[in-house]
Amino acid sequence: MQAWRVHELGEPGAVLRLDTVERPDPGPSQVLVRVTGAAANFPDVLMCRGLYQVRPPLPFTPGVEVCGEVVAVGSDVSEIAVGDRVIGGTALPHGGFAEFALMDAAQTFPAPPALDDAEAAALYIGYQTGWFGLHRRAGLKAGETLLVHAAAGGVGSAAIQLGKAAGARVIGVVGGPEKAAYAAKLGADVVIDRRTQDFVEVVKEVTNNRGADVVYDPVGGDVYARSTKCIAFEGRILVVGFAGGEIQTAALNHALVKNYSVVGLHWGLYNAYEPAAVAECHRTLTQLAAEGAIRPLVSERLTLDGIAEGVQRLADGKTVGRVVYAP
Question: Which segments constitute the Enoyl reductase (ER) domain (predicted)?
Answer without folding.
Answer: 13-325
